[in-house]
Amino acid sequence: MAAPAEPFLRIEGVSKRFGSFQAVRDVTLDVAKGEIFSLLGGSGCGKTTLLRMLAGFEEPSAGRIFLDGRDMAGVPPWNRPVHMMFQSYALFPHMTVERNVAYGLKHEPMSRSAKAERVREMLELVQLTPFAARKPHQISGGQRQRVALARALARQPKLLLLDEPLAALDKKLREHTQFELMSIQQRTGVTFIVVTHDQEEAMTLSDRIAVMDKGEVRQVGTPNEVYEFPNNRFVAGFIGSINTFEATVIAREGGALRLAVPAFGAEVLARDVPGVSPGQAVTMALRPEKAGISRTRPETVNAFEGTVKDLAYFGKDSLYRITLPSGTLVQAHAVNARRGAEVADWDDAVWLGFEPESVLVLAE
Amino acid sequence: MNRRPVFLITVLCFGFAFFYIPILSMIVYSFNASRLATVWGGFSTKWYVSLMSNRQVIEALMLSLKIALVSATIATILGTMTGITLARFGKFRGRMLFTGLVTAPLIMPEVITGISSLIFFILMADWIGWPGSRGFTTITLAHITFSMVFVSTIVQARMLQADRAIEEAAMDLGSRPWQVLFDVTLPVISPAILSGWLLAFTISLDDVVITSFTTGPGATTLPLLIWSKVKLGVTPDINALATLMVLTVGMGVVVAGIVMNRAEARRRADERMAYRSND
Amino acid sequence: MLARLSRWFDRRGWADILIGAPYLWLLIFFLLPFLIVAAMSLGTKTPTAPPISFGGEYPLLNWDSYARVLGDGLYLRAFLTSLANAGLAMVLCLLIGYPMALGLCRVSNGWRNILLMLVILPFWTSFLLRVYAWMGLMGRNSWFNRLLTDSWNLLVPVDWAVKSVPMMNTNFAVVLVMVYTYLPFMILPLYASLERLDPTLDEAAMDLGSRPFQVFRDVTLPQSVPGIVAGGMLVFIPAAGELVIPTLVGDASSPMIGRLISDEFSAARNWPMASAVAVVLLLIMVVPTMIYSHYQAKAEGSK
Fold first, then answer.
1. A4 domain-assigned
2. Which of A13, B20, C89, C285 is 20 to 30 A distant from B42 in Cα terms?
3. What is the mean pLDDT of residues C42-54?
4. CA atoms of A211 and B251, how far apart (whole Å)
5. Which residues form the ABC transmembrane type-1 domain (chain C) (predicted)?
6. DSSP SS3 for A117
7. In a domain, A283, yes or no
8. How far is C215 from chain A (nearest CA, A)?
9. Is the domain of A142 the same as that of A230?
10. Partner chains of A (3+ C-beta pairs under 8 Å)
11. Are the CB atoms for A149 and A118 separated by under 8 Å?
12. Which domain range does residue A313 map to?
């Protein structure tokens, strides 16, 4: 894990309770300067509360937050060099796009012309110059999102907080905006903290992701790390879809683990992970795209026979649901690389095969 | 933000003191033994006793209630029709004038409404011999006219919020438009109709100015009775009457508020349950 | 025959009845009376019953009453008194009502329901009795007046000492009681418009560097303008035509316009004059109404 040597933002043992409800529980995180860092989790996992504590709308019940070496305790929102892009964008409906962007500069000791220049720059950055005189209700959702971004960036914050930045946009626009956000981040160099419930959004946008559940951080890592090497069941299940099976470790042999998996009615060879010992009950997890299906027996140690129970055709790929002789269902993704050459049809007998390297063993 | 808005809370306290000190003072002085209404002369309930035996007051109250009941009911019917029309019928011939007629009574000073109604009734009696004498009928007619527009405002607002698709669904299922009105629209807006009726009832029960112009000999409503006494100054028996009225209304509003809060809480609980069973 | 009738009813008959009944009612009992009043204002006072005639050479072009409304200082003064009192009451209601409405938005949900009920409660109790309650407080011997008198005498030099504070039968009393009775009309629309505001807008402004007062000035206040206008109209319009309050606590030597109309009509039996004053008052009322509907339309448009 690329832990920054000199953390730009340091969240130290932060907790927040509302009455008897513990929204955030002992969170410790370090974020480097210029990073895009995502807080990923379902609703009520505490990610938004954590964001609001960074913005200064809530004070932590315990723990401390340091930004660029400065303790933020007791600093009101209006004195923090931290700006937020709200989920609803929170554009002032009675002000034009231009005045919305200029609003934060009101409080800056700058000359009038310097302010006008900054606003012009910002509008250019988000390509909204022709819409400067419009009111928020006269522009599209995507344009509103960009106004919110320009407004939050205009004062050159040290930290930009983005609360579900893409949630209100439709799917097509979301993809485009994602790249735009990344390019703007690169150009401005501002550190981004993104709150999102959408794992795809977190994966594409972020340098690093913190996966949260019930107020706790369950894993921090690069998108690749949290996807390929989740270190617990929650993270494995939350990011992407996954097949999980009860298993018992039989032995460790030659850099691999031999597992007894009742669902397969056989032994499965898996990549070795530290911290498990023979006899221990574990969870075996397998991503659908790592489970190959074929008509003939594949050349791997983990090969099992099954029947196609269901298949969903998505165009570029298909999702198969394979019934094993034990009755267990396994999901497998297959890419439709050649037209008219789909692997199998309903009720076909197929082989399911996967490399030991692809099998995850979760001790928790 | 957990900051306590000290200034706002202070203003609220002063505001409510301003609202309630005069009323509380009036209630306290209704138990005053002294005949001088503003000088305290010991505790007594004699003004309540004399009030109970005052036939004039009882008769006036009965007349007021009768007028309020009849006028609120008719005003609610007409006002509901108006509200539905304005919310649903889009453009029709004469809509502009109709909208004007529905708005005008809201801004028309009561004195003018009162005088124009009186002149109208006098001239009608002169030209076609109706109304023969002024009293219950003329007061009720005038009350209906100016309270129906309040009902229509409430109903119209509720109609504009209501989901049109349910009406279209009923029509799609084979109901004729007027059946849709009775089977779907009216039940959906029934809370608005009820509050419209209550408002019309209160307006009628409370009105002095229009009633004073449209009344005739022998027809004295409670507000008119109070008006004629109050013009002469503060008297302890009016304090007692006021106390009774304030307490009755206050209790009614509090009970209604509690009932509504309960219903609201139950609705929320039901929604939560439904939501949970979805998981 | 019956089938045709039922077809007519299904198709548009029911709609015609729905529109027609209230339309007809308002035409007969509201528009017609008012047109009669408008016509009366062009008539001449006569000692007959009804005391009016349309005589002279040009029966419908008799503008005498209007000439008197504009020429006679009595009427102009009454108009000015009314507008000044109503305007003052409106401003005071706004100054008291705005922080109260804002406070209502800030208290906890449980308190808010109770307090809202307490705002509405006086509105359901008799209007007349609310005015009457102040008569009891303002009278020369009341505890309230004595309290004011004593504190006045304590604060000012002996020479300025008074036996009692003159409150009853003054314009001050009229404005005070108007504020008292119309304050809920200001608070409720203000509360409605403030409560609708998105609290994240406040947070956004704070996040961009505004202190609470600046947030109020830049974000809350401009967005509540429709509520201010609505509340202002709801206070101003009935206050300007008020009859009960000036009659009970007002200064009879500088009457408000409502009282003047009533006196012309009942006491002086001068129907044309009363009608002319009424028509002018109504024309004056049209102005704030136009402002109001302008703002309403604007508020609707920006949604």
1. no
2. B20
3. 77
4. 55
5. 79-292
6. helix
7. yes
8. 10
9. yes
10. C
11. no
12. 243-362
